Amino acid sequence: MVDLHATAARLTSGGRGILAADESISTMSARLEAAGVAGTEANRRDYREMLITAQGLSDTVSGVILSDETFGQTLSDGRPVPQACHDAGILPGIKVDTGTSVLPGMGGALVTEGLDRLGARLADYAARGAAFAKWRAVIDVRTTSPYAVHANAAALGRYAALCQEHGIVPIVEPEVLAGGDHDLTHSAGATRSALEAVFAELQEAKVDLHGIILKPNFVTPGLEGPFATAESVAAVTFDVLRATVPAAVPGIAFLSGGHPTDAACAFLGALNALPQKPWSLTFSFGRALVSDALAAWSGRPENVAAAQEVLLGNCRQAAEAARQPAAV
What we know:
eight-stranded parallel β-sheet; 46% helix; two-stranded antiparallel sheet; 328 residues; 10 strands
């Protein structure tokens, strides 16, 4: 019997975080091509192999989220990718949503798809070594509505219940996008509404909150909006979380949301400096950890070691923020 509580705690405690390396084939190919690397299946595999084989990655990373393509690939030494993750002391996870579509009549608001035959897919992933899964809902301050929030929250509830039924810890990711020029107040309102709806649906779906991980955005102004200090972001984010997230949730792993590495780590460090937090607060960053490594690698085998050191440095910075002691 899989201990979902222990897995969720392992993924979010001890100052380690979760590496998001689950870009879709089209997104990953575009990023490779922007770095001067052909967007082929082999190159996508080589890039992710560079990430997960970095020596010492497990010192700061507890799990890695993979795409379906990567989950089914083998490394150059012949090991299946999930096995290589387990061998490195890192739990393999799988992105199971299939992307977004536009909600009719909702002004461009999006809903995440992928519930069809999800139970069968989860059973297959679990048999191949997946310890956790991820489903991302997308909420844009500029287009959201109560109906759009409800539709995404309902999907997250069904997904989370199916994950637990198959012995997989669900990462529940309602992301309020940082794109736009909105201020901190607008971000806080949208984030609070999203989290309230999500936890209502999780309760209705009878999801065991001790066996999930929440992956929210930091509450920040839009990327084109007014500046806010890390301390202000931390204070507002904590107020929203305290009002919406039950203490039963073992850990919260924040997404970077397009913010640079230094900014995302500053937000996380300022949050961890706050006292009386009922949850472990850590990171589940993607671009903030890997973009520099991709640029250093550039598809060249001779650059692997240097690129891995860049990755490890970014992961150490994020882990230090996760390990920031609370102020007395």
